[in-house]
Amino acid sequence: MVGATAVAVLFGSMLVRDGLTGDRPPAPGAAPSAPSRAVSLTPDSPALDPSAPRRLRIPSIAVDATFTDLGLDARGELETPPTERANLVGWYRDGAMPGADGTAVVVGHADDRRGPGVLYRLGLLRPGLAIAVTREDRRTATFTVDEVRSFPKSAFPSEEVYGTTGRAELRVITCGGHYDRKNGYDSNTVVFAHLTSSSAAT
Question: Residue 95 in contact with residue 7, Cβ under 8 Å?
């Protein structure tokens, strides 16, 4: 498994360099003075056996996307989902699988030259909202959002974002902040969530 530091290399330069010239993706609300993840809004659910994710649903921001698996490129940076497939998110295949023990990492584009991307509205999520991942084993892992934060790419806290917490957690990440054509977006929007239930997919 590649460690958190190696994965973090991506987020110094991700996800889209061909951003919109108009509106920026919505920014998260004001971050709490201290992390809120220590006090779960919904009780934890036991971790599931590993199984690859197949579909991401976030009803509150109208996301219903398929997955592709992502690895690291020759520079040690995480690959990104192909921009020609608009309704697609990626998961880091060398990390935890969503719903299994550990911290699973999911990424998607905020926008591209055609307009808003699949995770354009990610910053609108708030604590208590649900994220559902349908998996290859036909189980749906439901996560509850604990907090949504924005981090400058120049000071991305890899251990805080990717570190193992002793339970099944999920991070959903996209670009945000200020955009310029030379460097892309200067920040990342990160959703912190933990597994709260699972069920057989219908």
Answer: yes
CATH of domain 4-30+41-200: 2.40.260.10
DSSP secondary-structure letter at 61? G
Please name which of 123, 116, 131, 55 lies closest in space to residue 83, comparing C-alpha atoms. 116
Asked if residues 167 and 113 have their Cβ atoms less than 8 Å apart, the reply is: no
Give how far the C-alpha of residue 113 lies from the chain's centroid of Cα atoms, to the nearest Å.
21
Residue length of the chain: 202
Strand partners, 133: 56, 141
On whether the CB atoms of residues 52 and 92 are closer than 8 A, the answer is no
Confidence grade of residue 75 (pLDDT, cut at 50, 70, 90): confident
Residues 6 or more apart whose CB falls under 8 angstroms from that of 9 comprise: 72, 75, 76, 77, 78
Q: Write the pLDDT tens digit of every residue in 119-159.
A: 999 999 999 999 999 999 999 999 999 999 999 999 999 99
Question: Which tokens is 139 given?
Answer: 């189980």
**What pTM does this model have?**
0.84
> With the C-alpha atoms ordered 110, 153, 162, 50, is the resulting torsion angle positive or negative?
positive
Among residues 188, 181, 162, which one has the least CA distance to residue 12? 188
- Beta-bridge partners for 188: 151, 175
What residue spans define the domains of the chain? 4-30+41-200
pLDDT of residue 184: 87
